[in-house]
């Protein structure tokens, strides 16, 4: 398996992968593929990586800009999708690590994620009650600080997410 940035010919395969990966998922609302397409169309897809195995896309992760209070330099991780036949093999973890390394290289201040605390803790994410997302239980919203900026406040995702 290898990880690379998406290219112009990947969009349809990424959409199919995300749709299949989130169909029937407990916390999915069915808009994940549309979110990625809206991010791409609005230049809000800061990092878009695919995992390739045997010439097929088996995983995808997106990173997009968010605001933390009034501070720039933060990104949101997600969605992340892995083909059902390739789960529990480290595909998602490799995509996330590669994306976080790229954020560090860009000088990002940090990254937020909405998801399972036990899973994202391995990458250094932690809950911080001073960093919030409206309507979301604090224990599921986490931040990975990449600098010592200490910014706090409410997070706003890119408009492509449709979160008011």
Question: Describe it for me?
Answer:
Residues 1-147 form the N-acetyltransferase domain. Keywords: Acyltransferase, Transferase. It holds the Pfam family Acetyltransf_1. The chain has one domain (2-161): Aminopeptidase (3-Layer(aba) Sandwich), CATH 3.40.630.30. It is 26% helix and 33% strand. The protein has helices spanning 11-22, 32-41, 91-106, 117-120, and strands at residues 2-5, 47-53, 56-68, 71-82, 110-114, 126-127, 131-132, 141-145, 153-156. Strands 1, 2, 3, 4, 5, 6, 7, 8 and 9 form a 9-stranded mixed beta sheet that branches. The longest helix has 16 residues, at 91-106. The termini are far apart.
CATH superfamily assignment? Gcn5-related N-acetyltransferase (GNAT)
Radius of gyration: 15 Å
Which geometry do the CA atoms define?
Answer: globular
What is the residue-mean pLDDT, rounded to a whole number? 93
How many helical stretches?
A: 4
Identify the CATH class. Alpha Beta
> Which residues form runs of ≥5 with pLDDT under 50?
none
Q: What share of residues is helical?
A: 25-40%
What's the number of extended β-strand segments? 9
Question: Number of folding domains?
Answer: 1
Spatial separation of the terminal alpha carbons = 38 Å
Order of helices and strands: EHHEEEHEHEEEE
| Secondary structure category | alpha+beta
Strand content: 25-35%
Please identify, by name, the CATH architecture. Answer: 3-Layer(aba) Sandwich
The name CATH uses for the topology is Aminopeptidase
Largest sheet: 9 strands, mixed
